[in-house]
Amino acid sequence: MPVTLTCQHRAGNGEWFLSSVSFVLSALPFIALGNAMGREFKNFPALQAYAINTAGSLAGLLIFSLLSHFSTPPLVWFAFGGILFLLLAGKGQNTILPILCLGIIIYMVQILSQKDHEIWSPYYKINHYRNQTATSISVNGSLHQHMLNFNSPLESHKTDIDKIKQQYQLPYRFAKNWQDVLILGAGSGNDVHLALEQGAKSIDAVEIDPAIWKIGKELNYHKPYDDPRVNIYINDARAFLKTSRKKYNVIIIGTLDSQTLLSGKSSIRLDNYIFISVHKRTFETRWSGDFVSHVLE
């Protein structure tokens, strides 16, 4: 027992040491850049220097937003940042060493980030792995969802698939009419496929992440997003509810929590609680006839 405790203690110290070193190494370049910027700002009047600083911050936010919007990988980030740094800081200096260092950094980033089935969305790093029964989709290293083959050819998996299917079909047991269905957090298309299977005539599928929707469109076993009855909206669920005036018979609410803040292992679902409590009245104004709202976890 004492040996086990000692080993655990040492492992903890090692992790703490590595985290501290990583933090210091990450902070040092920004300290140097901050000092250089401070010296440059002394050449301008205070108000003008503040305006330049603010404009630079806004430009950085704009560039970051564009890089995120186009789902660029880390290689593009480091290449763009490195080239910009060389253009701004390399005047009148020997640029051979900085260019060499930039090349090494880009090469290391490419090697470390080069993985099969990995894409970058505006929100996450996404990995997906496919087999005959399901495609697992992970974001930032945590399992996010399974895209299921409800007609799996493997007999050993059919019992589990049927149990999951019954959970997805639960709202249709209570609704007398499901012609118009709204799915918030449509993801890779499980809910959409089963709504179509139930006979829905019109489905509005709302998904905030275009990369996850694209995975569903291209790889879903049942191709629900190709059905003409499905209207896809790449939008935030709250924003969609505020702008849409259509009424629905069934509203399906997927797990809407940010996987950056709360992984799938968390038992906290603050986002879902806030979403339902704040928009309860919104849901009530969207119903038509017999209305069923179903929260999927």
CATH topology name of the largest domain: Rossmann fold
Question: Quick one: biggest sheet?
Answer: 5 strands, parallel
Overall geometry: elongated
Element order: H for helix, E for strand: HHHHEEEEHHEHEHEHEHHE
Q: What's the CATH class of the largest domain, please?
A: Alpha Beta
Percent of residues in beta strands: 15-25%
Task: Measure the end-to-end span.
Answer: 40 Å
CATH superfamily of the largest domain: Vaccinia Virus protein VP39
Count of extended strands: 9
Q: Gyration radius, to the nearest Å?
A: 25 Å
Q: How many structural units, i.e. domains? A: 2
Uncertain runs are: 1-11
Average pLDDT figure? 78
Q: What percent of residues adopt helix (DSSP H or I)?
A: 40-55%
Number of helices: 11
Characterise the protein shown here:
The chain is α/β, with parallel strands linked by helices. It contains 11 helices and 9 strands. The strands form 2 sheets. The chain has a 5-stranded parallel β-sheet. Strands 1-2-3-4 form a 4-stranded antiparallel β-sheet, with helices on one face. Helix 3 (about 75-90) packs antiparallel against helix 4 (about 95-115).
Topology (elements, then pairings):
Layout lengths: L1 H40 L4 H24 L4 H16 L6 H18 L4 E3 L4 E6 L3 E6 L2 E7 L6 H14 L1 H5 L5 E5 L5 H9 L3 E6 L2 H10 L10 E5 L2 H7 L4 E6 L16 H9 L1 H7 E9 L2
Parallel strand pairs: 5-6, 5-8, 6-7, 8-9
Antiparallel strand pairs: 1-2, 2-3, 3-4
Keywords, separated by commas or semicolons:
five-stranded parallel β-sheet; 2 domains; 297 residues; alpha/beta; four-stranded antiparallel β-sheet; 9 strands; Rossmann fold
